[in-house]
Amino acid sequence: MEDVATSNIIHTLPNELLTLIFEAGSVLTYPSLVEPKSPFVPITVKKVSSFMNTVMHVCHRWRQVAIHTPALWTTLHISRSRKALDNLPSVKDFRNPMPWVTEHLMRSQCLPLDISLDCRHISIKSVFNQLIPESHRWRSLVITIPSVQDLPNALSSLKKIPAPALETLEITSLKYHDSIAPNLTSFFRGGLSPNLSHVRLNRVSLSWLAFPLKGLTTLDLRFVIWPTFPHLAEMLSGSPNLQNLILHIDNTAAKLLDRRGRAAINIPSLRSLEIRLFSQGSPTICPFLQIFSIPALESLTLREVTSSDWCRILVYFRVNCTSYPVLRHLRLSCIRGLISVDSSAVRAFPQLTHLTLNGIYSSAFCRLLVDEKTDDGYRVPVWPNMTSLSIRGDVDLNVNLLERAIIARRRMGRALMNVDLDHRKPSED
């Protein structure tokens, strides 16, 4: 009886409320990429069932509400399973337009489009033939390819295509590259995408982008085919509005991005920097920090560094802390091994207001926060401006010690206004 009553309530919801529910649900079914820690392991695509497909099969009323709500048809996840590919009657069917894509384009009317392409089992040229007439509506374009060698075919249709509303571009190769990029003319040249502000490249070549990108605010580079240091400097010099930079680096970058006495790349507007180093040898993070002059940096994220590299990082920031006058947010993720946390950490990041620890033994930091000043010869105040502490993925979290730190900070007049705890495994974000 309870299920029947609940069902009746659902069917009495007004169309306006149903529309809002459908709009919220439609953004929850975006396919995600599961990235392994090693760049040499292929990325996998995690798919979820279509929310809209479910809604359309509930009842006639829900179907009619969905059909007549353009906002529900603006997200296109274009892919085909291997099984569906094998079941196609002929090659001609492989190259034919996808009817449901045409249906989405029609029902979305004139609204901006968010497009995701999984190129493994589709005819990318046929799909782009369907999408290009609506390129003026593209808001985001996410392209996933099997390997870097497949990209020229995937992007050959985009050389002269205007995308004036495009804000986000993401390109991912599922397999790692051999550091050799296939020949490919840059796309979106000549101001064809003037509003492009967010670019993410994963395991592909950076040089394919038509730099400079004057409106670029976020650049996310993950194990790409790196250019040389002079080439990188030349590309970034034309992006004066860059605010967020994410670098996932492997051994090949250490040689190519060597400054060799050259001036650092000046990015005066950069507010946030994330560095993740996957090293199978001697490279450390510090040389990559020295690549850039970033005086406006407010937030630094360091992922998967070793305990020895952490010590080098502390030395680097103690020596160069005046070069980062507004650095106030430090995020540390999955540092391997026990790390030393004493006055050197406070002196390296003296202005800290926000500290985020993910997959790290947090007790070392909590012990430090209990005292007003460091218990050594330096006797420096322990982050007097800190107001926020986030601890995630620490299976050995000492709650009693954390409570002592919270109480002690409050008595000092340095209360932690926000404490965020998560006992689950370390986040991959």
UniProtKB/TrEMBL annotation:
It holds the Pfam family F-box-like. Residues 11-78 form the F-box domain. This is F-box domain-containing protein. It comes from Armillaria solidipes. The lineage of its organism: Eukaryota, Fungi, Dikarya, Basidiomycota, Agaricomycotina.
